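Researcher: I'm preparing a figure for a lab meeting and need a structural model of a single chain. I don't have an experimental structure, so a prediction will have to do for now. The sequence is pasted below. Please return the structure as tokens so I can convert it later.
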Amino acid sequence: MRGLLTAGAAAAVLVSGCSSGTSPLVPRTTPPSPPAHTTASAAPASPSPSAAPAKGTAKVTGTVASGLNSPWGLVQLPDGSLLVGSRNTGTISRVDPGKHTVARVGIVPGVSHTRGGENGLLGLALSPDFGADHTLYAYFSTDSDNRVASLLYDPSKPAGEQLGAPDTILRGIPTGTLHNGGRIAFGPDGDLYAGTGETGQRQLAQDMSSLGGKILRMTPDGQPPADNPVHGSLVYSPGHRNVQGLAWDSAGRLWASEFGQDTWDELNLITPGGNYGWPTVEGIAHHPGFIDPVEQWHPDAASPSGIAYAAGCIWMASLHGEQLWRIPLDGAKPDAAPQAFLTHTYGRLRTVVAIDDHTLLLTTSNTDDRGTPHKGDDRILRVAVS
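Model: Understood. Here is the structure written out token by token.
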């Protein structure tokens, strides 16, 4: 296997003045009937000319595919067709958006899923050189770990046999029934980023020898880039509980969504080497040494998974909240309160992908053992946004 790293070889100790992962969660005082979200700082009085409008729109314009089983990872191929992964079964299928057909491409061997759990076949990403190398990347759970592997995709082969054997580029990410992270995406720099979870072992988020509870950055072969915050380490930022959304804005800034515990879910602007505080803090805490989120929501309004950037906004899919959040940006901060769309209309929402600046693809997640499936679930929706 080329470029294979284990957790021990991939992580390095980061010396910092922040609290250790063994610190208890700082008690919080929550006011009666708090708002569903709050922001880290007041919105600017006069947004810049490039700021997104305070109010926008999101309208479902069609169903691209239906009858999907626990969709999680979703990518668009150069020809406009889609590859979608099933978390529970480990299969990958090709969707023809014009014909609304779904055809099985293959199965990722070794995927482990626990009924009712969050492990399984999770994020998908296309190689930046997909047109030449035909390589698909997958983040998935096994019985012993979470790992990232590359697979060749050959549509000329018979249906169901179009995936090559996985070439593992990274193993040793902690796995568990819960909090497996799983989102992967290539950044503007050509490197592969992965959001991981701490699997319920809180101390891992502050343990720099562990790949759990982190955002990782690696080359396409799974090696630490030379300019990572700590030389020889894959860790791009620590102190995360469960990162399932990654997206870059038009200026190349990285944003990440994160599941909180009982109080605050988060949208974070990621600083290389910045520590995001879990488990010492949750949400906006103004704690020295930790970076506060730019927005926070109570879990019943969010429980965020995928995010995407389009029309000057971060669009965030919510599972428990069953809605799509629009967060308008003015540079590196929100310029108005978030708006919620599609509330309780399509059930749990998992993954959101921007296919152009005003069009999103959005997956429902009602067959994930936690939702209430309806006829046609699960589905991929096309959404026009502004």
